[in-house]
Amino acid sequence: MIVCIAEKPSVARDIARILGANSSHDGYMEGNGYQVTWTFGHLCTLKEPGDYTQAWKPWALTQLPMIPPRFGIKLISDRGIEKQFATIERLMKAADGIVNCGDAGQEGELIQRWVMQKAGATCPVKRLWISSMTDEAIREGFSNLKDQQDYQPLYMAGLSRAIGDWLLGMNATRLYTLKYGQNRQVLSIGRVQTPTLALIVNRQKEIENFKPEPYWVLATVYRDTTFTATKGKFTSKEEGEQAFGDIEGKPFEVTSVQKKNGTEAPPQLYDLTSLQVDCNRKFGYSAEMTLNLIQSLYEKKYTTYPRVDTQYLSDDIYPKCPQTMNGLYQTKFAGVAPYAEFIKPIGGKPLKKSKRVFDTSKVTDHHAIIPTGVIPQNLTDAERSVFDLVARRFIAVFLPDCKFSTTTVMGKAGEVEFKVTGKEILEPGWRVVNGKEKAKADDADDKDGATIGDTEDGKKKEDEERTLPTFVKGESGEHRPTLTEKWTTPPPYYNEASLLRAMETAGKFVEDETLRAAMKENGIGRPSSRASIIETLFKRHYIRRERKRLVATPTGIELIDLIREELLKSCELTGIWEKKLRDIEHRKYDAGQFIEELKQQVGEIVQQVMRDTSNRRVTVTTDDDLKKKKSSKSGNKPT
């Protein structure tokens, strides 16, 4: 009998149906030579400190650092988990072979390996590795089962991550709680959560310490068009007034008119982070909510595997794209086919193939998130919103580039030069799939936690995308000059969208997609874990929401202030850790060396903190404190 083990009951049922295992039993399905069972995500976890020695059960500074000679796993204490594990253990001990059908990623590998280890499985193990849950993908996957040994580096990377998080989290959390927590507040420290908190705290301090400085902008209105002085900002009013005086009463002359045609390629396909960013900007969904929605769409077979950090497809996906496109063409919501009009012009001919989309060298385990071509049914409103983004992005990459014309008009009044730029869309190309929605989303891009920069940058973007009147070189006439006082503005607060981008680029916030791709090697956390890290910061009362802004609480600020060890709060260093873990996965780095380095670093952290004689304490933030803050911000007044 072959035992197949999936990560969820719903996935197991789909696999059982394809394999012909149609007889239901308590905890598994059986038939056609297969038994298909399941976990509920993690059934096992690393042992807790007290499981290794009684001395580590109570929290005590004298017992730190806690470094087990050998790490062990245990079953999570839960009646349902214990019952299901007993079923799995019985099936595996009698099995002729096992097929690991866990999610095809680092965490999925770890979940199933631990269960097999705990169950004492000794028979040969094969690995099902698929990127979508369609019937076709499952059948294809079972006809091409891999040897489990091929995924040993993936398991070692996952195990190293889990042990590393244990070493740092268990030791540093006890260390900081006992030293600074007033015996009332657990000060949770983590390899990813603490640098993420530091990003928010440092940005908040930058805003609070920001001192606005005045500057003056010289502009003039000629033929109902505002031209701005090319000199830029005047740092003193006198200098601005002098320039204003030089041009007042003098005619404005157009000195050059230049038109330049350009093209804009479609945006790249979604990885998990870019999807979470767009869902936060457009719909206000949290990173965790987006992950749950796209995971649901994956399990319902409508989209491919979601926990990915690439925006490319491998070349072997190209022949399957027409079939996917046909599924989207036939898709209807409430009787309306939303994608048919975009697909019609490219139907019946070969789809274009671009290196920005298809590049096998940029794909490791999984490709970008795309629709499967299965026609979606009975989606919730939120699921439909997420599916719609993925579908439109997929269609867009096969549409022509957007063609536009940029007009730059230079002018002069006296000795002062002026400039205005306008942009005109000549052929919308791929932009038709966005319609007016993108413009609306960009315009509303969160005033509380903006991601484009200050209002001046926003105005610049708006100016560049407007169409100018026709100007002719040499024309001149009257104009109305203005000298406007403005003030420099602080950087925006983080919102979930901009924080996810910052985590992805190790704190170096970059909008350019090509640069982001180049910097992904040094991101903090994994795409699949970033949402839960942000939620953990909320649960620990380290941060709170102010509309869309993410604001650090006194507890969060003080915790970052008292951490002197850069290891614990440095994005860059944590990014290096992530790179080492990826290198372990790709056989370029030794897992044992990674753990030994970490043990040494944890020991140094403990020594540093123990030497602190300042007697500092961290403010405790309670649920009541957060409720009061929320109430005062909402402007509630007594009646």
* Strand segment count: 18
- Low-confidence parts: 437-461
Compute the separation of the termini in Å. Answer: 72 Å
Gyration radius, to the nearest Å? Answer: 29 Å
Strand order within the widest beta sheet: 2-3-4-1-7-8-9
The outline comes out as: flat
Strand content: 15-25%
User: Main beta sheet, described?
Assistant: 7 strands, mixed
Discrete helix count: 23
Structural class: alpha+beta
- Mean pLDDT, rounded to whole units? 89
Residues in helix, %:
40-55%
Description:
The protein has 639 residues and is an alpha+beta fold. The radius of gyration is 29 Å and the shape is flat. Helices cover 42% and strands 17% of the residues. Helix 3 packs across helix 4 (106-119) and helix 16 crosses helix 18. Strand 7 (97-101), helix 4 and strand 8 form a beta-alpha-beta unit. The chain is built from 23 helices and 18 strands. The chain has a seven-stranded mixed β-sheet, with helices on both faces. A seven-stranded antiparallel β-sheet has the order 15-12-13-14-11-10-16, with helices on one face. Residues 437-461 have low confidence and may be disordered.
